[in-house]
Amino acid sequence: MYPSVPVIGRRVDFDVVTSTSHVIPKDTIVSVHIFGLHHNPKFYPDPEKFDPDRFLPQNMKGRHPFSYIPFSAGPRNCIGQRFAMVEMKTAIASVVRNFRLLPIDKPSDLQFMAHLILKANKGVHIKFEKRQ
């Protein structure tokens, strides 16, 4: 729900008429607010709640295919997506195998800064408890 890049820009290749009949002329640069999209209750009820089940196939039926785009989408998406996913799964598996992760901060207390990447203003504090 927290993309590393919160906003992306794209140039429109041809005139586009939106569902509200607005025309976006060719060559206009539009911004896609990925963070806002991922927190839209239309797609994700209670978006601040930690709910991995929201991504189960049965819970994604009828949801717009581009409602979750942490690496952007289409021909100009993140070139490092596959590498990032493999690296992330490997690192998370190693950490979770050896530690229980416990939140110190409440998600509602976190404040974010959106620069080139999205990051927590004062970091995210987690307690690592060694597994037996």
From TrEMBL:
It is a peripheral membrane protein. Heme binds at residue 78. Its main location: endoplasmic reticulum. Belongs to the cytochrome P450 family. It comes from the Eukaryota. Transmembrane segments: none annotated. May be involved in the metabolism of insect hormones and in the breakdown of synthetic insecticides. It is found in: Endoplasmic reticulum membrane; Microsome membrane. InterPro entries: Cyt_P450, Cyt_P450_CS, Cyt_P450_E_grp-I, Cyt_P450_sf, Cytochrome_P450_Monoox. Gene3D superfamilies: Cytochrome P450 (1.10.630.10). This is Cytochrome P450. GO terms for cellular component: endoplasmic reticulum membrane. Pfam families: p450 (PF00067). GO terms for molecular function: heme binding; iron ion binding; monooxygenase activity; oxidoreductase activity, acting on paired donors, with incorporation or reduction of molecular oxygen. Its cofactor is heme. Keywords: Endoplasmic reticulum, Heme, Iron, Membrane, Metal-binding, Microsome, Monooxygenase, Oxidoreductase.
